[in-house]
């Protein structure tokens, strides 16, 4: 679905990402892991085009449009095909849950309000948060905020959904609930990519892993092809 070739990110003369290659497979959960500063969040931002001053190529393939460089996406194309849920959720505090979900549909995709409202109601119901529609972000829990952020992204019907440190603001109960949401997303055909330093969480959703160190991918794991114990550095990192 996404192919990356020789991605290099340089900021203030320092290489943050150093000639990285990887593939994100459709219908799977791909995790980028590593210590703080390893470059995983930077790489995530490249995938969703929030950072585009990199060298190399990032290509998204889809039945809807064939194959296209992510750098060449317009804003409307990017938000429709690639959703991004940040670590702090970034909900508009002055808007209700309903308004947070309506705004990007109307403002970016230019949907009519009636169509956007119908889509929002369906998504909120699917995530079991319809009762939060008229609440403001300040009045809901961390786990609920995350579901709202996911709902806002899903209202745009992305094929690819990215999460930056998705469990960092969640309690154990909300983290377990998030795992179930991930399973439902994949079941519904959404490809999921995340970066995290929460190793118990990563082990619980084990699928495809890219292990990063100093801006490079130093080990990979695919549960369909690999045995984790054979990946010594990765295995030790997950269990340290």
Describe the structure.
The protein has one domain (2-238): P-loop containing nucleotide triphosphate hydrolases (Rossmann fold, 3-Layer(aba) Sandwich), CATH 3.40.50. It has helices spanning 40-47, 75-81, 97-107, 113-126, 142-154, 172-187, 199-204, 232-238, and strands spanning 2-11, 14-24, 29-33, 55-62, 66-69, 82-85, 160-164, 191-196, 208-213, 216-222. Helix 5 runs parallel beside helix 6. Helix content is 34%, strand content 28%. It is of the alpha/beta class and 240 residues long. It has a six-stranded mixed β-sheet, with helices on both faces. The protein has a four-stranded antiparallel β-sheet with strand order 2-1-4-5, covered by helices on one side.
Short description:
With 240 residues, the chain is of the alpha/beta class.
Features:
240 residues; alpha/beta; Rossmann fold; 6-stranded mixed beta sheet; 4-stranded antiparallel beta sheet; 34% helix
Blueprint (SSEs and pairs):
Elements: E1 2-11, E2 14-24, E3 29-33, H1 40-47, E4 55-62, E5 66-69, H2 75-81, E6 82-85, H3 97-107, H4 113-126, H5 142-154, E7 160-164, H6 172-187, E8 191-196, H7 199-204, E9 208-213, E10 216-222, H8 232-238
Parallel strand pairs: 3-8, 3-9, 6-7, 7-8
Antiparallel strand pairs: 1-2, 1-4, 4-5, 9-10
Low-confidence stretches: none
Number of strands: 10
CATH class: Alpha Beta
Give the total of domains.
1
How many H/I helical runs? 8
Taking all Cα atoms into account, the compactness measure Rg is 18 Å
């Amino acid at each position: 679905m996404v192919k990356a070739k020789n991605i290099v990110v340089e900021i203030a003369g320092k290489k943050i990402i150093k000639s990285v290659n990887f593939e994100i497979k459709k219908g799977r959960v791909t995790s980028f892991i590593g210590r703080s500063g390893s470059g995983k969040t930077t790489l995530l931002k490249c995938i969703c085009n929030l950072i585009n001053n990199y060298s190399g190529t990032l290509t998204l393939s889809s039945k809807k449009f064939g194959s296209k460089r992510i750098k060449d996406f317009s804003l409307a194309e990017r938000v429709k095909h690639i959703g991004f849920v940040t670590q702090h959720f970034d909900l508009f505090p002055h808007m209700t849950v309903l308004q947070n979900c309506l705004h990007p549909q109307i403002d970016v995709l230019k949907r009519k309000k009636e169509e956007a409202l119908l889509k929002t109601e369906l998504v909120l119901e699917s995530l079991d948060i319809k009762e939060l529609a008229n609440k403001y972000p300040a009045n809901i829990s961390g786990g609920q905020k995350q579901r709202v952020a996911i709902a806002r992204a899903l209202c745009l019907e992305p094929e690819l959904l990215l999460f930056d440190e998705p469990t960092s603001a969640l309690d154990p109960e909300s983290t377990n609930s998030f795992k179930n949401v991930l399973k439902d997303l994949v079941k519904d055909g959404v490809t999921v990519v995340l970066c995290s330093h929460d190793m118990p969480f990563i082990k619980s959703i084990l699928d495809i892993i890219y292990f990063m160190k100093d801006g490079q991918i130093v080990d990979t794991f695919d549960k369909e092809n690999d045995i984790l114990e054979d990946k010594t550095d990765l295995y030790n990192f997950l269990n340290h």
